[in-house]
Amino acid sequence: MPSHQVLCIGSALWDIIARTGHAMSAGADMPGQISKQMGGVALNIALALVRRGQSAAILSAIGQDAPGDELMLKATKAGVNCAHILRTTDPTDTYLAIEDVSGEVFGAIADCASLEREGDAILEPLRDGTLAGKGAPWRGRMVIDGNLPEALLIDIAGSLEFHFADLAFVPASPGKAARLREVIKRFGHTIYVNRGEAEIICRQGFATAEDAARGLKRLGANKAIVTDGANRVAQVDASGVFTLAQRPVDADSVTGAGDTFLAAHIAAEIGGQTGLGCLQEATRAARDHITRGGT
To answer: Is the pTM of this model over 0.85?
Structure first.
């Protein structure tokens, strides 16, 4: 596996997305459409990287059931290297979301029980030399999502086995953002979050994405990239502070937009861009994603 290939570690599952053209309220029963698509933070990022011409592989846990077989087949056909995914006797994980008339997520549940139970076992291809070669450390980029158990996230962040890897962490959701506090505080690395997730990790409020990125840098992050809905995005790293205003758009679906943003940002970095250029590529990709229904 070439060192420039991006290795995505975390969730790979089926997204079940319900969409309605009506305003939602608690307990509402609305007409709409329900669709199934490939999902999971790690797989979304890998798919988005492949669409941008990058090589991507994934480490995850997928069930030895019919939904798992279908997911493996579709992801492989899409160009993602799925050869090292752990097949488990547990059911394939699922994400269920309801999107409202504005394309925003009204509510969602992520069932990542299979991934959480397998935990460290999904990393075996890294640790036994299958990926980088016997006795060789992984020297490429790794993107790790917060659906992994907190102890495993900390272990990856501080492991000497991954000392030469370029690690980036993403919370997966506000509900799992707190899992990354110790990762960033103790080990630094790169983190991609939205402003709300940054507030959870830093345990304080922020008025802007720039404030949040600076807060994450103070906490310990080597590089922090923060989005804030339709407001300015920001990046803070050793080379400085970069912010970018976004053009307002009518959202069709926001599910997976953050993963698309991250993938485009990484692809831009691999392509030699820095700072503002990476933010421009990432925001353009996210904008295109939300205006064409999340595909």
So the answer is: yes
